[in-house]
Amino acid sequence: MTTALETRTIRLAAMARVEGECGLRLEVRDGRLGDVHFDIYEPPRFFEAFLRGRSLYDLPDITARICGICPVAYQLTSVQAIESALRVEPTPEIRALRRLLYCAEWIQSHALHIYLLQAPDLFGMDSAIALASIQPDLVRRGLELKKIGNDLMRLIGGRSVHPISVCIGGFWKAPQRSELLKFRGRMERALQLSIETATFVSSLKPPEFSANYECVSLFNPEGYGIDNGRIISSSGLDIAVGEFEQVFLEEHVAHSTALHSVRAERGLSYLVGPLSRINLNYSRLSPSARQAADRSGIKWPCFNPYAGIVARAVELVQVCEESLQAIDLYREPDPPRIDYTVRAAEGCAATEAPRGLLYHRYRINDQGLVQSARIVSPTGQNCRRIEDDLRLLVSGILDRTDAEIVNACEKMVRNYDPCISCSTHALRVQFIRR
């Protein structure tokens, strides 16, 4: 319990079921919440520096290594940024196959988060293994969905982790139509499982919580915003991708090796990810996904981060239904890649990784060597928003014990499915009371 004059610092030492290493430090002074630091202590990985001086041909393979869960997002965003610089226009067949590859990544990533990372919270369990002891069918469903997504990534990309088929201008190798048609039955199964997933998460009542989010995402009037579009927000922002760096700033903070993103003119946090996408792209949902959203019991737009798992489930239906249609309409790209001329140029691109908006910008010289690189990740953009949500949450539960506060903070952070480095799975939060 907190007394009026109590001063304490609370830290969580280790939190499972997030991707990467980070910490949380909460300071309570005279009974009031002070500093809230979402501390990412993992060493910087310097990918932007690694890319300088490298050939543009190396970009797809290097950027895919940034993340083991969403390599396609980093790979395709880098490729599209270079194509923008060199004015390469992939054919409709190439674009359709790339989007299908992106959908496959969303399937495996969303299934991973819903069933293996966040579902244990819903049942008061500390791991997916423990959850499997009481809900084996639930965990099997998640694993089956993830495997379907991984296998589709392998079919198109050559590998399920760090795919190798994508190149500037298209694909080194594209699958035959007969290969994708053989996968159709499994995609029908995935759609069925995704609808069951949406029904499952919609049966759970999320905790009451509301925040004043500015939601930010891509928007494309021709379809659900995933691989291209303009950047819009719930406050009326509507800009081309090339204006990203004028509107959003990255700031260094003393307590984290991750940069924090804010709106340039106001210095305030904003939200990217599934909840923002549903809020801003509800009208672009596929028929089955729209039905899942309407049956969820959630009133859209929604500003409760605990509803993020519902948004992911709706998006899971979206990409499964879209993938099934893409397989039916698939035509092999001929040629599989477009020729281009290397020249000194600069280009940028933005796509929607499973966790939110992802931005890349590159400048290359006339020999095709990278002179500068800028990569802004979804989790980096959400760091400040995570701190703001934790501040709102903890301010209302200071009368609870340290253990109860720690548990509540863990669940709040997992709403965001933060991908801190995609190499380890531990989050530290430490509370110190004086």
Write the layout of secondary structure elements.
Blueprint: E1 8-11, E2 20-29, E3 32-39, H1 47-51, H2 59-64, H3 71-86, H4 92-122, H5 128-134, H6 136-157, E4 166-167, E5 170-171, H7 177-182, H8 184-202, E6 216-219, E7 230-233, E8 238-239, H9 244-247, E9 248-251, E10 260-263, H10 274-281, H11 287-295, H12 308-329, E11 345-353, E12 356-364, E13 370-376, H13 378-395, H14 402-415, E14 425-427, E15 430-433
Parallel strand pairs: 2-14, 2-15
Antiparallel strand pairs: 1-2, 1-15, 2-3, 4-5, 6-7, 7-8, 9-10, 11-12, 12-13
Helix pairs in contact: 3-4, 4-6, 4-12, 5-6, 6-8, 8-11, 8-12, 10-12, 11-12, 13-14
Uncertain runs are 422-429
Secondary structure tally: strands: 15
CATH class: Mainly Alpha
Termini Cα gap? 13 Å
**Strand share of the residues?**
15-25%
Please indicate the count of domains.
Answer: 1
Structure keywords:
434 residues; alpha+beta; Cytochrome-c3 Hydrogenase, chain B; five-stranded mixed beta sheet; three-stranded antiparallel beta sheet; 14 helices
